Amino acid sequence: MYPQVLFKNRKPDRIASMEEYRASGGYEAMAHVLKNFSYKDVRKLMLDANLLGRGGAAFPAGRKVMTVADDAPFPRYLVCNADEMEPGTFKDRVMIHADPHMLIEGMIIEGYSARAEKGIIFIRPEYESAARILDREIEKATAAGYLGNNILDSGYDFDIVVHRSGGRYICGEVTAQLNALEGKRPNPKQPPPYATEKGLWGQPTVSQNVETLVCIPHIIRNGAEWFRNLALTETGAGTKIFCVSGKVNRPGCYELPMGIRLSDIIETHAGGMREGAQFKACLPGGASTAFLTPEFYDIEMDFETLKKAGHRLGTGAIMVFDHRTCLVAATLNLTEFFARESCGWCTPCREGFPYLRDLLWRIENGQGKEEYVSTIKQMCHHLWNAYCAFAPGGIAPIESLLTYFKDEVDAHIREEKCPFK
Amino acid sequence: MLPEALNASLQKKISSAEHPRELMVDVMLELQDHYGYLSDEALEAAASLLDLTPLEVEELATFYTFIYREPVGKYVIHVCDSVVCWMDGYESIQDHLCAKLGIKMGETTADGLFTLLPVCCIGYCDRSPAILVNRKVYGPLTAEKLDNILVELRTEAG
Prior knowledge:
heterodimer; A: about 425 residues; alpha/beta; Ubiquitin-like (UB roll); de novo design (two linked rop proteins); 4-stranded mixed β-sheet; about 45% helix; B: about 160 residues; Arc Repressor Mutant, subunit A; 2 domains; 7 helices
């Protein structure tokens, strides 16, 4: 059993109350920061801890907040991205249901380091129960004096509100999310200006994922070195909430050290493959990552190691496929997701995904032709011209299907049917 | 016409917001709850409350998954059809629902009780195959469990 930091108060059937959170040392980090730290101290500590954004992009959290200039105007905003819509990902939901005050404390400290006065939790409509929990617990934290004006006599003012989305994948993209928050069509925007310079309502805005924010109080309490040492690899830092789903015995969320081996996650923690199922591939971090094949079965799961191997850790949502699952059909399903969820703002993405879906549909349904493979490759190449990172993410499974499972694609075309049916 | 109480509570929220437009989705959801869907009348009410044109509201109303511009049943059933639910057999769940309710995906039962809609990954992959009924999750599902859920909902609806 590895140390449980983020999930230390997690219970099977209910959230941890504010009293339980406090009894486990909760809100001590915030009190310590407000009393003894400058906002710059917090920024430096996050950088030293090598805290990388857990929403999928792995951008250093400390460096992001450092891009808020000292003389940047006020008000400033902190946006907590709880819009997790990456297929296979459910860690933020589990985290909020486990210990909502850890998120509130993390937001206060991050808000302080950005010198923001308002925090906004942007949450997807499928997580209405989590949104209600947050509404209620924010009220409790305010009543306890942890939110509002002059928190613990420090002179720092900070409030948090919950913003419910109407539900679309693109709203998880930071710039689109800012448009959504302003009540505009959630199209992505290309920097410059960066959100930390001109974000929400034209004001400096820092966006962080739920899982990134909950790490912060622990880094304050235990130090940067302690956080880095939680990882099993030199390049990693902290723990990671892995959400495992698919053909394993115990799908679920597991807090494990960054850098733990994929095989260990599947076999020890997720209960191994289901009876009769053999590991064929997995998507390591949501639908926007490439298939990991058995040759990567023992890979150390941290951002850097996967990057070196030509892969991405993404959100750490591990979806496991077995030898009886057709990966052409799986990729077709993933592409259907992107075709449906494309926001339609730019042509490559809006037109490209339905085109790719149709080609994959034909191959899966016995109407494939040899030349489709090169057409798919060409179309994937066009999608790199899309306006935001959505499209390059969406083609990752398709490109890796052609790299690692070309035989399976060829068999569909040759036999004029899906060999798995 | 919008009931006075709802109109007043929305007016109050909007006037206390620093940027009224940020309440767009909240206002649409509340009006939708009242009308059953975001009717033309509701859309115009939202526009007038937020001092926007109906077109500006329409642009968002048609964008979001959980805003309905057409009438829906009392219970909107969203069937997750993304990759993990696919792996765990959402298709049989969907077929079972269609057969039981006698409708296709996208349709509403004649008694106005149920609407079936597909939805992208709802973030309950540890409970797949999963569905949402009026944004409440159910899963992991079997045909038998679905039958029980439908009976419960019918009883609740009276």
